[in-house]
């Protein structure tokens, strides 16, 4: 056995790898069936859900509520997009216009806002419940990792949406909130080891986010695209994996 | 119930063991085939490796290009330099706040000459005030104090204020370049460009 096969086997047989990819690409009849039935794209829906998995007292339905909030923000967000232009001259006026001059605009904007807050709260409670019931333990440990990614994506959705009204609160909140980027090790111009790569205020981690040295028109456009297209798409992908995976691995439940 | 569960787990282990055995046999078969070739890479091996390498190079280049494209070649920024009037406009011993509102810069006229201080507290970045009566810079946020030289002496500020590049332009006016900083803790305050001799 060469070192290559040996290392490969060491990696593919490790618990971490196994928790992510349940089975490999072995060309055996049994594995081929497993690959089809266990594929997220081919079998999104589970063959069965156990009764105890849906008990409210156990789950608090927090994952479901988080998803509901996500759907509300998607629907109301699409409505808001019809009236909003992410350009510095228009953004603030458009926000006022869609709130005060569009029929149902105020309801839509407030639903979007409160659902976003609700999503953040529900996602924390969901995490809390999963922690309390020990549902992060094997075989569900990879789904916990996916969940943490989804938590970060949720917070990023809130953060990018914060800038879009383009008022003083938005601009300064994002200025302050992204100060962390300046302190990134190696990649931030005020972080440790920043001299190594020679990063400066317009070529560093924060400038990557801002499209310049400070919050400006490029930042508004970037955050708009991230908020409306990029992060929702990525979130949807991870949501699909998250739901599919918990059904594949089996819901945890109270001892019967 | 506990018993049933234990059995299920055993079952899983058995399935796993069977799978491993299958895999091992498959691998052994492949190795026999390879041995028949005399340990050389088969044509399929070569093609496969070439294809995967090309795919890898392509993916890497695409990612690098995507990251690079986030940094435009041209940014529309206000100029980093500004003219600060003629040296004769400043009285000896004066800390001028004339350019603080527009440029966030103090210009200090000593007996020896001029230097420019950036009006940003080294604690958390507020704009300090110049208090003439007390002869010091005082930050309103957390009370950091700095001597007129810029050295910190009270409050939470961890290091002195930063000095900016100052020079005399061709028309005789002082010129400040905010993109070049001189830090005391790096021993840069004596360097050329950090002051203008009177």
Strand tally of chain B is 11
Biggest β-sheet strands, sense, barrel of chain B: 7 strands, antiparallel
User: What count of helical segments of chain B does DSSP give?
Assistant: 3
Proper CATH architecture of the largest domain in chain B: 3-layer Sandwich
Structural class of chain B: alpha+beta
Instruction: Give the tally of β-strands of chain A.
Output: 0
- Strand percentage of chain A lies at under 5%
Look at the structure and name the CATH superfamily of the largest domain in chain B: Rieske [2Fe-2S] iron-sulphur domain
Work out the count of structural domains of chain B. 2
Strand content of chain B: 15-25%
User: What proportion of the residues of chain A is helical, as a percent range?
Assistant: 55-70%
Distance between the termini of chain A: 47 Å
Order of helices and strands of chain A: HHHHHHHHHHHHH
Name the shape of chain B in a single word.
elongated
Low-confidence stretches of chain A: none
Helix content of chain B: 25-40%
Helical/strand content category of chain A: mainly alpha
Mean pLDDT of chain B: 88
Low-confidence stretches of chain B: none
Terminal CA distance of chain B: 92 Å
Task: Briefly say what this structure is.
The complex is a heterodimer of chains A (256) and B (198). Chain A is mainly α and 256 residues long. Chain A is built from 13 helices and no strands.
Task: Set down the secondary structure blueprint.
The complex is a heterodimer of chains A (256) and B (198).
Chain A lengths: L2 H10 L2 H6 L8 H9 L18 H4 L2 H20 L9 H10 L4 H28 L8 H23 L4 H10 L1 H4 L11 H4 L7 H6 L6 H33 L7
Chain B lengths: L1 H35 L6 H26 L12 E3 L11 E2 L3 H4 L1 E5 L3 E6 L10 E3 L4 E3 L6 E2 L5 E3 L8 E6 L5 E9 L13 E2 L1
């Amino acid at each position: 056995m060469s070192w290559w096969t040996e290392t490969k086997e060491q990696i593919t047989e490790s618990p971490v790898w196994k928790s992510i990819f349940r089975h490999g690409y072995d060309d055996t009849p049994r594995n081929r069936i497993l690959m089809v039935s266990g594929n997220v794209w081919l079998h999104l829906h589970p063959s069965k859900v156990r009764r105890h998995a849906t008990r409210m007292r156990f789950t608090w339905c927090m994952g479901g509520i988080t998803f509901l909030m996500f759907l509300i923000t998607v629907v109301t967000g699409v409505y808001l997009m019809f009236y909003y232009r992410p350009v510095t001259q228009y953004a603030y006026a458009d926000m006022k216009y869609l709130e005060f001059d569009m029929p149902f605009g105020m309801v839509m904007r407030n639903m979007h806002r409160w659902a976003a807050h609700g999503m953040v709260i529900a996602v924390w409670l969901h995490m809390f419940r999963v922690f309390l019931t020990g549902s992060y333990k094997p075989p569900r440990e990879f789904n916990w990792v996916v969940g943490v990614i989804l938590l970060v994506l949720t917070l990023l959705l809130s953060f990018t949406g914060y800038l879009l009204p383009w008022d003083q609160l938005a601009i300064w909140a994002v200025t302050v909130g992204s100060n962390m980027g300046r302190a990134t090790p190696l990649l931030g111009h005020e972080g440790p080891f920043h001299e190594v790569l020679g990063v400066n205020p317009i070529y560093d981690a924060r400038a990557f986010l801002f499209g310049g040295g400070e919050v400006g028109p490029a930042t508004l456009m970037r955050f708009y695209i991230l908020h409306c297209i990029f992060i929702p798409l990525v979130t949807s992908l991870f949501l699909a994996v998250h739901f599919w995976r918990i059904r594949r691995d089996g819901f945890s439940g109270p001892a019967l | 119930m506990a018993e049933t569960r234990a059995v299920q787990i055993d079952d899983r282990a058995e399935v796993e063991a069977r799978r491993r055995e299958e895999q091992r046999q498959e691998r052994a078969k492949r190795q026999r085939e390879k041995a028949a070739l005399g340990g050389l890479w088969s044509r399929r091996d070569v093609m496969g490796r070439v294809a995967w390498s090309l795919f890898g190079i392509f993916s890497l280049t695409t990612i690098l290009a995507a990251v690079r494209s986030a940094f435009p070649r041209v940014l529309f920024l206000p100029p980093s330099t500004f003219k600060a009037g003629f040296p004769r406009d400043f009285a000896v011993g004066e800390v001028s706040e004339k350019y603080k509102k527009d440029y966030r810069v103090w210009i200090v006229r000593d007996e020896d000459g001029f230097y420019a201080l950036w009006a940003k507290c080294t604690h958390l970045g507020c704009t300090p005030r110049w208090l003439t009566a007390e002869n010091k810079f005082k930050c309103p946020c957390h009370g950091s104090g700095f001597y007129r030289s810029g050295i910190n002496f009270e409050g939470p500020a961890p290091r002195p204020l930063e000095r900016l590049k100052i020079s005399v332009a061709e028309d005789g006016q002082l010129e400040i370049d905010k993109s070049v900083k001189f830090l005391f803790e790096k021993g840069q305050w004596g360097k050329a460009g950090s002051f203008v001799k009177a």
